[in-house]
Hints:
Organism (chain B): Synaphobranchus kaupii (Kaup's arrowtooth eel)
CATH architecture of chain A: 3-Layer(aba) Sandwich
Structural class of chain A: alpha/beta
Oligomer: heterotrimer
Pfam families (chain B): CENP-N (PF05238)
CATH topology of the largest domain in chain B: Double Stranded RNA Binding Domain
CATH superfamily of the largest domain in chain B: Bacterial toxin RNase RnlA/LsoA, N repeated domain
Order of helices and strands of chain A: EHEEHEHEHHH
Number of helices of chain A: 6
CATH class of the largest domain in chain B: Alpha Beta
CATH topology of chain A: Rossmann fold
Strand order of the largest sheet of chain B: 2-3-4-5-1-6
Protein name (chain B): Centromere protein N
Number of strands of chain A: 5
Mean pLDDT of chain A: 85
Keywords (chain B): Centromere, Chromosome, Nucleus
Mean pLDDT of chain B: 82
Largest sheet of chain A: 5 strands, parallel
InterPro entries (chain B): CENP-NAC/CAD_complex, Chl4/mis15/CENP-N
CATH architecture of the largest domain in chain B: 2-Layer Sandwich
Amino acid sequence: MSLLKPLNKLPELNTANVLLVENEELFQKKLADAIVLLENNVNVIVRLARSLPLPLESRPRIDLVVFIVHLNSEQSLLSAEASLKHLDSSYFLGKVCFLVTGARCGTLPYERLTSLKKLAATLNSPLLMTEDRTTEGVNTVAQRVLAVLRVAAGLVPMATGLYLSSLTRCTVPTDPDWQNQD
Amino acid sequence: MDDSTKQVLRQIIRRIPLNKLQNMLSKWEHLSKKQLRSLEFTQPKWLLCDNLLSICEENDLSMKHVTELEIIYRIDHPAQGSWNVCQLIDPEEEAVTADLLHFKQLFKAHLRGLISHVSVKTKKHEDGAIWIRIAWGDNFTQPNHLKPTYVVHHLQTPYVFVSGLTMKHKPLLHQALVLSAHYGGIKDVHLSGRCLTALRDLLMRQYKQVFPVKHPRLLLERSPLPSNPNIQMEHAKHAENRLQMAAEAFGEGILPKLETAVYKLETRFRENGNGMLGRREEPFRGVVKFASSNLLESLKYCVSSGMASAPVTPLLSSITQKGRNYFVITDKGPGASHTPGPNI
Amino acid sequence: MANKDFLEDPFLHNYEDYLMSVWGRNPDRHPSKGPAWSCVRETMGPGESEGFLVPGSVGGLSYPSTEDQFSTRPCSPTPRLFPKRSHLRCPRPPELSLLRRHPPELSLLRRHPPELAGQWSGAQAGRRRGSGSSSTATAGRQQRQQRQERQHINSTAALAKRAYKSYAKALPGLKKLGISSVLLRKIIGTLEVSCGVVLTLVPGRPKDVANFLLLLVMLAVLFFHQLVGDPLKRYAHALVFGILLTCRLLIARQSEERPEREETREQQVNAEEKNKVKVSYDRSLRVAENERKKSEAEDPFLLALKYFSRVEDGTPWKGNDVLERHVAVVERLALSQGLPPEAIPVLLDFALSLRMGTTLCVRMLKILIPASVVPQDAVIQGVSWLCVGKMPIGTQVMFLRWLLTVFDLIDSKDQLRAIYGFIFSFVTEESLGRQPFLMHLLALYKVFSPELVTLSFPSKMKSGFKNHNSTWKAALSSVQRRNNVEVASDLRLTFGVREQPVSKKRKMNSHLTVPAVSSLPLRVSSSKKALPLEQLRAFPQLLQNLDRIELPAQMGSMLGSSLALHYMDCLRDSSAFLRLNFWLGHALHEEFLFCREASSQNMEEAARFLNTLISTQRLLQEGFSSTEVFLYRFLRVWDGSLLRPQILALLSDISVVPSSRIKVLLFEPLMQLFFTSSLFFKCSVIECLNSMLLKWLTWHSVYALEDELDISVSSQTPVNMTLSGLMDSVVELVQFVGRISTIGLQLEGYHTLLLSFTLDFYETVCDMYLKYDLPLVLMPPAGVFYPALLSTSPVSVDRLCHIMHRYRTNLVSAKRQEKQPEKPFHISRKTYREFNQYVVSMVSCLWNSRAFLPGMGIELGEDVLARSKVSEYWSTFNLIHHPAFMSCAIDFHQKCWPERKELDLNSIKVGKRWDWYTEFLFSQGFHGIKEFVQSSFSRRSSIKETGNDLQ
């Protein structure tokens, strides 16, 4: 199974599966620990991967795929782009989310952030900014991933991933004035 | 003490860091304890050097003694320059039974026979290696002690480590080595690096090697599994596999320290038509140079972290397997242009 | 006269050169005779540039000199032994080690060291040069001349007496004064002798005075000679001596910073000798010992400074151990404690003079980190090096960048300001070209002084500065942080206005370390006496001096002081605001967008700074535009937790955003954060938007003018907003909050906390017309209204009632307004309909027990209601059975029938009890319900009637 599909397996009761994809394997462990510690009501299972496709194994349905991109390395972005091809298109209906680190640092190439924003915008996925250096930042992003995950896994009544992603999806400002200010 | 001796001593003192100087001087054993105590090592070096010079003058030390200090320092800190490795080939019968004294005498005699003005100083290291310091002159000039050549040889092994040798003196040294060690010839191994022990370990396979086995042992201690059962690694097996591969290619534990690996590529342009480039006589040349403070560790990390593809290419793994870090890659031959492959 | 020949050489100006060359070549050859030698060595006083020896015998006045010790005449046959070498090597006394700081134009002097002038034989050579016949002068002629001189002296008293008699005769005025020739002779003689003694023996100021007197005497003598009409050869000596004296005086005046060249040269001679001459072992040891003692006696840093101050031009730097050592010393001190002010001129001069090449210059500039202040002189001297013109562009740029970095630390800037014209022309017109790091600064400066900056700038430049000097700044701030103790104490001294316990921020900190916050002189107030802001202590003082207050040099310091802000508030000059804005934009951008890592200390500092900024904005009651620009950018990269309270507080302060851009700037980034974040974040966002709306409305009610349709805003806010523009923005904002709160409530399971914050917002919205005079009524969306109505918390329902009451009041008065012809405005029919529907469903739920019935607001399908298996579903949300009020009903029931065992809530509905129950509810503090009931049911009219009335 090279293509990861969201709907070919039944969900398990009170369980949410999240897959963290990060080429560098630097941040995903910290994030996974924070996520597991934060959630008490639901059984959250975090799966860590460098890239897609995943090895052939039986695994439960994955409710949310999170791509972690470090802006300080081009490889990080390229690897995420390459991994996207191994996702079924129905994942992009609210079951994909991007995390980006180092966006606040103005010394990093701005084009990388822009191209990532465009990527997230075309895939209708949210792009979460992350402060990966501080524990507070890690906890915050863990909370936010959990919030998206709960909706994507169908644990929030009357809300679906698609619904949420239509609200939170990344936008690229088209205003030329604004671009200039950026 | 003449001027040149002073100059050499000054240079040696300048090279030795101040914090190691005291230790070196006491090892040297040419200064009395009182004299050693009279030196103040908190002073600036140039001042210290002046005082030391006057003491040496008092003791009437000669160039011989001064070079001894250098050789002591060099033995203790071999990573001062680049070392090249040569291999002696075709051993004769005596080669196995050669003893140190004999080798020393023979070497000196042979070298003096080849060149008139040369100064040779030898010292036996604790690990059995013989250290030779050669200051070269030529027929008309005195030996230049400012740029000596160092040779390290372990008797009963075919390897010779050479540092600071010029092309001019290479044949002389090689000839003297071959004759005095009772070998038939000598060749370059194409291995060089700053760390002498690393080169030795690499050639004599004195690092922890890992061999391919059918049932890979558990690598639990190497990659601790995530503490929480709710966190699962998707690529755990892959990671394990990669670690194993990397260990097989480069060894385990502390790896020998190499600084560079150079690949020279010579290739012909291949195309079907008779283009301009195809008819070129000269091959295209390119050089790829890897440099790191510890090259093998870096390469290993590349493989184990997945930056390099997992079955290690023979180009990289032959650094350890063949014990060399300089490669020339050429096309196999003019006829076999459709099956290009590296000829290492 | 073995060495006579070289004296004749007109090209060999410098004896020292010659000495060196002779000794260097043949150290054993000691010149045993010859006045030149002995004079040079002997007269070199141990510390002075002493030159002149003898007045008595050499002056033009030939009288016998009795003071033999002064007689060192050119041909004096007294040979002196060459001084011992130890004397030559004797180290210079410390006072000689003045820092070598001769400007380039002094090079002429360097070639003629003072010794030369002080030499008699030098005088001869000088005379020959001076008379222009130097090239033809021969030894023979000189000998003849000397013979003449000797004769001159031999004919002693008689000649002199005769001469003076003739003088006295020539000037009859003297006789009248009672001065005879004898007296004249004695006066002049005494003067010459005493001045000569002073000149030889007494150092310092008296020497100069004596020189001057002697010169006067010489002039008098020359005058006499001229009177009598003597031939030239008789007074040539006096002439030459006069010229010599003049030269000495001139040199003495100029040599306050005398070049130390001779000295270093002497050292070189020593060194050379040391190398060449075979010295015995113990002597060299002694020398080493001496040097060691000397070096230990002094601080290595001072030694290094000394070295840099006197190092020769063109000394090689490669492999120069001595240099390395000194650079290392300076480097260590600079990076640990910073350099003391007195060291900076020396090092800067060394670097910029390129005495050891560009590499070392760059290296030196890199470590030039001041500990406290940078002396102004150093900077001016540095600027003067720029015009020497041998510095490569890269180094010039580097120097300018260094200057910009330490600009705040320059101790005073008055002289620097004087050469601004030069600096600006240099920066803009010289070969420097357009340096990106300068552009913003120049653009800003152009606003203030357009005549200085002639460059044109692209009209659209990014506001805010990029940090170009980060390495220096990092080093500087670390040094200053290390010296924090002093900083804090300084701060309290300079800012008496308001006590500040800790420095707020690195940047301000670095500014405030300057002991005196220097102020820019306002060009207008040049006639009046200006009062620097930092001298203000109290508010009355501010009021008295309002018209002559001077702004500080750096506007950032104003943030900390409330007095300064008060002043700023009443200032009409927009440039102050502009400056503050520029500074703020730069600071915010650099600190928060370029911050490499968010360490806790950094964040603490940042939070403190933002808090200061917030309080400033609150005081001024308006936001800075640079803050807004920063916020819009920051929102896009914000993770939602970093400095949350501060960022949201700042956000609530922003001025009205035009409705065309509000979506892009504000709503999109906020929405992405809002829906992925926690409940508390959602609450704080709603609260923030609420206070934003409040500020907009307040702003409107304050600034709205009479004609009501065009509001022009005070000068500081760049946005000129019309009433309709403002209304559009407000509508956008309210609708946005309605949208996100609806979905937020749904996602959070109608959390009471979020609901409460949302109702807070609508409490502001419902009163827009009456309270803030904005002709606008906007109803809450159903997603907010019904959850509040059906909420389990009685507070929510109560507040909803209150809000509905306020809506009703607003709508009623709007209706009344509509009927008046002079100020007509229209509220759409849809709003009334919405309101009516809400009222209908509210009343039918709470009072009439007709919920879910057709036409009663909320309608549900029959089958759905049937599936709920509630029999009397229409009455489940009346005031008795409503989940929020059930407990009240039970309470009431118990109070009514304390003896009753079974609970029958329906009995409350009957008759008078219903009125009692509502009274009971009012008494429980549900004022909202009371208001709603009283306004809606006062006439006991039916609901329909109310609706019709409003329509």
